[in-house]
Design brief:
Blueprint lengths: L6 E5 L3 H7 L4 H21 L4 E8 L7 H24 L3 E5 L7 H14 L6 E8 L1 H17 L10 H6 L11 E4 L18 E4 L9 H12 L13 E3 L5 E3 H5 L3
Parallel strand pairs: 1-2, 1-5, 2-4, 3-4, 5-6
Antiparallel strand pairs: 7-8
Helix pairs in contact: 1-2, 2-3, 3-4
């Protein structure tokens, strides 16, 4: 039986190229990409994936043409206004991570409302990264800790990996087990750098609007066949705890 990733992250690349290949407006590609995400989210849940994080809009995407940015924000508003009841029916819990200061007040209220409406759901944890940058998230967390030290609320010696992560915008998310990037590019593009430390990487030339459930199954099969050691020397990522018991690092990371 295939073992799916506990936390799957996706960089949804290729919407604009998909549109250009068809000589249609770029926004049509983003719309199709939105439909693809909903299909993939359902299938991910069916395959036993508990956490799904999608890179919806990076902090660098603000430099795109204004009509495209406005169109993307409109698609997000439409998703929040029209699809939240469907998410509720499917027991999906929605989170939005990233900087909200540059979003409109109306969109921020919609995000808060959608998160509240789905907060009690216990199925798939769907996280949308919006105006998000991995480096910026780490820098913000470091500044927060530095301020606490300067104000005498924290000792430098107390700072460790867990404390730094707790100050990140994506602190509630477990570490990523597998990253899928569509569209043929093979880079992280400043996504969730901290959470990707030991992630398996799967790159495909398929453009995001064309990414299918079969493509996801292929990625899961590849993931299931990989041996994950997390930098250790034990068998299949095993480690010895303080009590001398051999435990799986993968299992420990899944306890979220």
């Amino acid at each position: 039986m295939l073992t799916p990733p506990h936390h799957l992250a996706i960089i949804m690349d290729g919407n604009r190229r998909w549109s250009r290949q068809r000589n249609i407006p770029v926004l049509r590609g983003h719309q199709q990409g939105s439909n693809t995400l909903k299909t993939i989210a359902r299938h991910a849940h069916d395959r036993g994936i508990r956490w799904l994080s999608a890179f919806a809009f990076s902090s660098e995407n603000w430099s795109r043409p204004r009509p495209e940015v406005d169109g993307l924000m409109g698609l997000l508003r439409g998703f929040l206004e029209n699809d939240i009841s469907e998410l509720g029916d499917e027991n999906v819990k929605l989170r939005v991570i990233g900087n909200r200061s540059r979003l409109s007040s109306h969109l921020c209220k919609l995000i808060e409302w959608a998160e509240h409406e789905t907060s009690g759901n216990s199925g798939l944890n769907l996280s949308l990264a919006l105006d998000f940058g991995g480096q910026q998230d780490i820098v913000s967390a470091a500044r927060s800790l530095a301020t606490e030290v300067a104000n005498g609320l924290l000792d430098v010696e107390d700072i460790n990996e867990d404390l730094l992560k707790s100050r990140m915008d994506a602190s509630s998310l477990p570490e990523i087990d597998m990253l899928v990037r569509t569209g043929g590019e093979q880079r992280l593009s400043n996504f969730m750098l901290w959470h990707l430390s030991y992630a398996e990487l799967h790159f495909t030339s398929t453009l995001w609007p064309d990414f299918s459930t079969d493509n996801l199954d292929e990625a899961i099969e590849e993931f299931s066949g990989r041996e994950r050691r997390f930098g250790g020397s034990g068998e299949a990522g095993e480690d010895v705890d303080a009590a001398g018991m051999v435990t799986s690092l993968a299992d420990r990371r899944r306890n979220v």
